[in-house]
Amino acid sequence: MSLSPFVPWRLTRIIAGQASTLHGSVVAEEPLEIQLNGEPVAVLMRLPGDEKALAIGFCITEGLITRYADIQLVLHCGSATEGESVSGEDSANRVRIVADRTAPGPAAKLLRLIRSGCGGVEAAEVAADIPAVSSDLHVSPDVLWALPKMMAVSQRSYRAAGGVHAAAVFDFEGRLVVVKEDIGRHNAADKAIGECIIQGVGFQDKIMLITGRASHEMVMKITRVGMPVLVSLSSPTSLALQMAERLNCTIIGYLRGHRMSVYTHPWRVAESSSK
After folding, report:
1. What is the pLDDT at residue 108?
2. CA 206 to CA 202: how far, in whole Å?
């Protein structure tokens, strides 16, 4: 079984205050469990496709396998090689590698997201310990459209050298609380949330704006602290949207000029009723 790199999604498009409902698509985000000599060593969130190459590249670049020549078998999605039979344990979200001369005890050093089972992981499983956001925040499109410019003014590192991501926290009236930058988009979000926590800032009436895509990790980060709205200058992934639906989180993508796409819980965006 192969997975599509795209997932259809019904969204609300708002342009200059006019809202309409349309059917689009988002990039798929799926977990890939990598097993090395029978032991799970990592779960990577990835765009479906090239799973064998991803698994081999990860194991070699992370030092888990010394050389490509040490790999005896790579098995993905029921496609056996070297005369090996296919078992019911193989799925589109798992790659099994058998190799010689692996690094000692790699499984103990790497995060495991999937512990058992096969096939796709459900959004509820990934964020099973996170309660749904309780905030009933509403925000005006005019407030949202003004956020990117305010964040850009505070991106000192980006203006000086480029090559960094930013995450900003705003209140529901568009007042800037904090902007943080980092070479990693997840690090930028963690810095912004951490600074709010240090300052004693609550999250129920706050919005996070990020420069990178809205992935499931970003949804997990903001919903853990009860923040109800995640806005991206780019696009969301399918798993992020599945999680956001369950966790009562509003995701907005492609916030540019006077355009935006509201993917989940559009009721939070004033004037977003379909026309």
Report:
1. 42
2. 8
